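Dear H.,

Thanks for agreeing to be a second pair of eyes. The structure we're designing against is below in C-alpha cell form, covering all 408 positions.
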C-alpha cells in the first residue's frame, strides 16, 4: 500500500505526526515548513525543508508544486497540515495542487467557520452545540460600548480570528483574556483595537472550574463522511503562560467522574456527520457543573498538539489516514475508553499544580503503571540535540508554572 506522506509545519503537532509515521514504517517523513522550531529543528526522524514565505498563498502553492513535481511518480502524495494556517491554505488551493496530492480535510467553508469564532458561534449554536453565553465586539467601531449588565463576571475575551489577531502583537498579548470587572474588559478591548486588529472579539461568560473541568475530544471522520474514531480525555493541566493558555499539558483518556461521556460523544459525532465533515477534528470542552453539560469552547479542524495519545491507545494517526485515503478501508465507529496518561510536564509539576486530588491520584497511578506517554520523548529519536532540548524544556516548565501559578 502507498504510504507517501508529507507533513506541513514544524511545531509539536508536526513532531508527533512524524513519530507516528516513523513508528508505523520505520522511515523518516518529508516535512515542509516556514521556519525552524525546536520541536522538529534537530530531529533525526524528519526530512525538513524550509520556505520562509510558506504562509502566503503564492509561497504555499509554489513550494508544494515544486515538491510535487519532484516527488510525484504516478502515485499521489498524502498531505497532512499541522497548523490552522496550513489547513486553510491547503483547502483554498486544493485544485491547484490536485495533480500531485491528496488529503482528508474539511471543506474551506467549514474551515473558515471553525477558525472565525464569530461565524462558529453564530452558525453552530443552532446546530445542537452547547456554548457559554456569548456576545461580539466589532473592533472597527470607534467607541467601545460598555459590557451589557446581564453578563456575569468573570468574562473570557478572545479573538474571533486568531490568525489575524497574531498579526497584530502588543506587549503582554494573551491568547485568551480573563476580565474580572467591566473596566477591566473595556480596557483590554481598547488595547486590542489599538494594536490594529480590526476583526471581532468574542466575549463569553466564564464557565467555573479549574483545569480539571476541561476535556479534549478527538474525532476521525473518513473520506466518506462517517466518523470512525473518537477519544474523550479529561485535562488535568493546561499551559499557564498567557500566550499559551488553552494548550493542554496533562490529560487522561477514559477518565471522567462527571458522567455523560457517551451521550456527549454521540452528540458531537452527529454534529460532524450532519455538517459533512472530513478528517481529524479536535473539540475543546468544559464541563459546566451548573447545568451538568459539556460546553464547546472551540473546534480545531485538524489533529491537535496533544492528539498523540490516540496512537498510544493503539490507533496510529498516520496509518488511520493512509488506510482510508489510499486503501479505502472503512471501520465501524469506535470510542476509545481505555485509560492512558499524556504528560508533557515533569511529575513534580503534575503533583504540585493539578488541583483535583482524585485526578492527581489517578494520573500518578497511571504514571507508576507506565501507562503514560510524552509525544516528544521517542525512543526512535537519535538526535542528541533534540534530547537535550527536552531536558531544558522540562526545567523551563518548572519555572513557568512557578511564575504563572494561576490560569483562567
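And this is the sequence the design step returned. I haven't edited it by hand at all.
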Amino acid at each position: 500500500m502507498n504510504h507517501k506522506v508529507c507533513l506541513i509545519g514544524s511545531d509539536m503537532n508536526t513532531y508527533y505526526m512524524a513519530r507516528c509515521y516513523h513508528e508505523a514504517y520505520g522511515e523518516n517523513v518529508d516535512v515542509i515548513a516556514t521556519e525552524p522550531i525546536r520541536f522538529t529543528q534537530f530531529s533525526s526522524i524528519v526530512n525538513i525543508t524550509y520556505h520562509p514565505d510558506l504562509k502566503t498563498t503564492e509561497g504555499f502553492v509554489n513550494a508544494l508544486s515544486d515538491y510535487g513535481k519532484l516527488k510525484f511518480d504516478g502515485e499521489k502524495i498524502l498531505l497532512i497540515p499541522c497548523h490552522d494556517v496550513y489547513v486553510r491554505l491547503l483547502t483554498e488551493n486544493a485544485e491547484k495542487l490536485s495533480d500531485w496530492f491528496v488529503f482528508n480535510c474539511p471543506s474551506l467553508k467549514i474551515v473558515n467557520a471553525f477558525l472565525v469564532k464569530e461565524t462558529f458561534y453564530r452558525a453552530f449554536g443552532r446546530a445542537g452545540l452547547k456554548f457559554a453565553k456569548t456576545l461580539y465586539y466589532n473592533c472597527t467601531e470607534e467607541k467601545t460600548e460598555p459590557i451589557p449588565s446581564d453578563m456575569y463576571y468573570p468574562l473570557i475575551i478572545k479573538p474571533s480570528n486568531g490568525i489575524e489577531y497574531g498579526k497584530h502583537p502588543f506587549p503582554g498579548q494573551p491568547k485568551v483574556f480573563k476580565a474580572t470587572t467591566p473596566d477591566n474588559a473595556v480596557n483590554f478591548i481598547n488595547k486590542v483595537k489599538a494594536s490594529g486588529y480590526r476583526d471581532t472579539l468574542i466575549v463569553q461568560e466564564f464557565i467555573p472550574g479549574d483545569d480539571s473541568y476541561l476535556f479534549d475530544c478527538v474525532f476521525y471522520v473518513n473520506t466518506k463522511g462517517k466518523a470512525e474514531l473518537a477519544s474523550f480525555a479529561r485535562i488535568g493541566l493546561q499551559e499557564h503562560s498567557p500566550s499559551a493558555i488553552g494548550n493542554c499539558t496533562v490529560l487522561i483518556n477514559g477518565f471522567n467522574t462527571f458522567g455523560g461521556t457517551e451521550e456527549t460523544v454521540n452528540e458531537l459525532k452527529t454534529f460532524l456527520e450532519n455538517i459533512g465533515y472530513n478528517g481529524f477534528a479536535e473539540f475543546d470542552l468544559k464541563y459546566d457543573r451548573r447545568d451538568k453539560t459539556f460546553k464547546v469552547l472551540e473546534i480545531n479542524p485538524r489533529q491537535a498538539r496533544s492528539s498523540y495519545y490516540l496512537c498510544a491507545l493503539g490507533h496510529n494517526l498516520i496509518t488511520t489516514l493512509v488506510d482510508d485515503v489510499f486503501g479505502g478501508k472503512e471501520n465501524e465507529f469506535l470510542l476509545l475508553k481505555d485509560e492512558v496518561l499524556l504528560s508533557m510536564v515533569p511529575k513534580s509539576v503534575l503533583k504540585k499544580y493539578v488541583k483535583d486530588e482524585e485526578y492527581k491520584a489517578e494520573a500518578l497511578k497511571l504514571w507508576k503503571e507506565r501507562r503514560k506517554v510524552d509525544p516528544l520523548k521517542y525512543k526512535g529519536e537519535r538526535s542528541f540535540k533534540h534530547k537535550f532540548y527536552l531536558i531544558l524544556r522540562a526545567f523551563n516548565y518548572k519555572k513557568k508554572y512557578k511564575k504563572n501559578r494561576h490560569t483562567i
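Two observations from my side: The chain has three domains: 5-103, 133-205, 211-403. The longest strand covers residues 279-288.

Warmly,
E.
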